UniProtKB/TrEMBL annotation:
Residues 92-225 form the Cytochrome oxidase subunit II copper A binding domain. The chain crosses the membrane at residues 27-46, 67-87. Component of the cytochrome c oxidase (complex IV, CIV), a multisubunit enzyme composed of a catalytic core of 3 subunits and several supernumerary subunits. The complex exists as a monomer or a dimer and forms supercomplexes (SCs) in the inner mitochondrial membrane with ubiquinol-cytochrome c oxidoreductase (cytochrome b-c1 complex, complex III, CIII). Belongs to the cytochrome c oxidase subunit 2 family. It is found in: Mitochondrion inner membrane. This is Cytochrome c oxidase subunit 2. It holds the Pfam family COX2. It is a multi-pass membrane protein. It catalyses: 4 Fe(II)-[cytochrome c] + O2 + 8 H(+)(in) = 4 Fe(III)-[cytochrome c] + 2 H2O + 4 H(+)(out). InterPro entries: CcO_II, CcO_II-like_C, CcO_II_C, Copper_CuA, Cupredoxin, Cyt_c_oxidase_su2, Cyt_c_oxidase_su2_TM_dom, Cyt_c_oxidase_su2_TM_sf. Binds a copper A center. PROSITE patterns: COX2, COX2_CUA, COX2_TM. It comes from Coptotermes acinaciformis acinaciformis.
Amino acid sequence: MTTWLNMSLQDGASPIMEQLVFFHDHVLMIMLMITTTVSYMMITLIRNKQTSRFMLEGQMIETTWTIAPAIILVFIAMPSLRLLYLMDEVHNPSLTLKAIGHQWYWSYEYSDFTKLEFDSYMIPQEEQQESTFRLLDTDNRIVLPMNSPIRMIVTAADVLHSWTIPSLGVKTDATPGRLNQTSFSISRPGILYGQCSEICGANHSFMPITIESVPAKYFINWVSKMSE
Ligand SMILES: [Cu+2]
């Protein structure tokens, strides 16, 4: 989760998010190069007066500064498209989780098991404890096994919502009458937080998402306990 003074992206908890962070840094480096060059040129132009009666055009430099930005754009577009298609792929999932957005809570269905479904409400401020995070913790956390490919099916029961976990690089619209799909695999154990990311009404800010990422054997224990 984000903590104080974290001005950048959260640490990636999935391979895709790791790649997204690399891409973000890569684009920032290119932007740094462009801003440095352009501001150097602008400052020189302002501070110097260079005029020539005979220099009316410069074919060479004009060709260069038309083509160079196009080449730079290719270096941004290529890795961007690679990531886009990588995120779209569902790699042989070992588990499917269905999230349904309601006004104003999420409900979850583990369709691989019988009768494993629950609602997940935010813990209200009055019931806060030392260990809970305000506006982020839920009464029933999603439990998922780490290091296994997971397929998410996202939908809504009333209005538009959006199921989001920043540290996994996942954001999917929850639309009534539609099933949207994404996938991810969590690379470490821990608790991951997210919030509804589509303005869905008065309590939009109060329907967080909490994932408990655990090793597979703990997950199996949890499943058998839940479906008793
Ligand atoms: Cu919502």
